């Protein structure tokens, strides 16, 4: 059976899910099986996009193919490369707050983060008055295996994505060979390997970079492991009772992009379409003293900067700053306080409650903006 290796990989993947160390109850398993479904879909997509001679950009992750604590504010794309070939990237710059490119020497694995051979944003690109641009990559970028492109939104409703295309220079106008039985057999095998690696890698990644930190704390801003040179992040993990809240206080940055998000123990974003589990600086309420005070809790604290736990007693927190022109320091980073939800009106220095109608409007705006962005 041609598909047998992939079917066997799905069975092994199910064992990875049910054996994950954080699984404690039925909710964890339900989320795990949902994560598995998205991973199966993504693995097939990635295997069929594994094309270095006639490459194209594929959506690396999205609302239904989540992985790696995906940023709700980012559209991720990738294309495979050969280090001995030349590629032409053409595009049309949208109005998003950041557009960045990164060349990796491989893919993520359970034991290592891929090396970054080059990382830059559109400030280093000659963009024509009409927004168009053209880039050339290679040949000779030794070890180059993948080009990753990130398009980042701060104002979900007001910004629009651009257009992107990649071609191998000496294959323009040519056509790839027709599929063969042998080629499809290999692709099913590759899909199975991607699936297992994907699940194991990011469970190990979370344990390596997050779970060793003291609970209910956040790190000083630091260059993101495996990420862009123009990105810093502050990370941590929380464990809160339903009557507790975590207040994360951070200066409103002068960086073009600043955001915060929550993630589940599967190391993926929570529902960011129908629930407010992330906020950019544009979406957040900034206090008169220039600080942003986020409230992470299960119970509704009736504030605009509530980050909904959505039933997750434990989870991950990540703050990001992008398109930086300087290194961040401890003074740019967050502080954390754990308080009772009932005490929030007393401990928040600029407590301004919002009602249920205003909250529904915020959620409706997220739903509309996400739908428009996914069609972009």
Record keyword descriptors for this entry.
alpha+beta; Jelly Rolls; 2 domains; five-stranded antiparallel beta sheet; 17 strands; 24% helix
Count of alpha/pi helices? 5
| End-to-end distance | 39 Å
| Counted beta strands | 17
Strand order of the largest sheet: 1-2-7-4-5
Protein name: DUF1214 domain-containing protein
How would you characterize the overall build of this protein?
It is globular, with a radius of gyration of 21 Å. It is an alpha+beta fold and 376 residues long. The protein has five helices and 17 strands. It has two domains: 205 residues, no CATH class; 161 residues, Jelly Rolls, CATH 2.60.120. Strand 9 and strand 10 form a beta hairpin. The mean pLDDT is 94. The strands form four sheets. The protein has a five-stranded antiparallel β-sheet with strand order 1-2-7-4-5. A five-stranded antiparallel β-sheet has the order 9-10-16-12-13, covered by helices on one side. A four-stranded mixed β-sheet has the order 15-14-11-17, with no helix packed on it.
What is the structure about, briefly put?
This protein has 376 residues and is α+β, with helices and mostly antiparallel strands. It is built from five helices and 17 strands.
Topology readout:
Layout: H1 4-18, H2 26-48, E1 58-61, E2 74-80, E3 87-92, E4 98-104, E5 116-121, E6 132-137, E7 146-152, E8 163-168, H3 181-211, E9 222-223, E10 231-239, E11 244-251, E12 257-263, E13 278-280, E14 291-297, E15 306-308, E16 314-322, E17 335-340, H4 344-347, H5 356-374
Parallel strand pairs: 14-15
Antiparallel strand pairs: 1-2, 2-7, 3-6, 3-8, 4-5, 4-7, 9-10, 10-16, 11-14, 11-17, 12-13, 12-16
Helix pairs in contact: 1-2, 1-3, 2-3
